[in-house]
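Page 42, continued from yesterday. The earlier attempt failed because a stray header line got pasted into the input along with the sequence. Redoing it now with the clean sequence only.
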Amino acid sequence: MLVLAGFAAASIAAMGTSGPARAVNDTSIFGRWFVIDSDSLTRRALVVIAPNGDEIVGTIAEIYAKPGDDPDPVCAQCPGADRNRRVRGLPILFVAPRVTNGDFRGTILDPDEGEIYRCVITPDPSGRRLTLRGYVGIPLLGRTETWVRAP
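This time it went through. Structure tokens are written below.
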């Protein structure tokens, strides 16, 4: 799974701030986020999260391929119009603008498997990390990963 397994959870030190000085308690999910591989603790992708009409969308802006991996893969297993679309530039995160107890809720696409999962996104108080919980059915049946804000 590109997002929920291949880019599995990792807690690492924050990698800077985005733009001019950030407020200490900036819990916005908007911005650029590194997806970190938990095994190698290296960057696997850069996702940009921005408002898009009535929802919030996260798009893969960059892929950091491992040696031997396709540097510009396609989403061979994705459903519908996304099938065989390049992963770079692919919208994978769709979030409602409403916040429940500080959390955002929506869906996330795993381009490796072509599966769509429900997700809960929790920004940490520092604004430097997002915790994403992708799941099927209920959040208990899922996987958690941490994204780190990119400079």
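Notes: Residues 1-25 have pLDDT under 50 and may be disordered.
Reminder to self: strip header lines before submitting.
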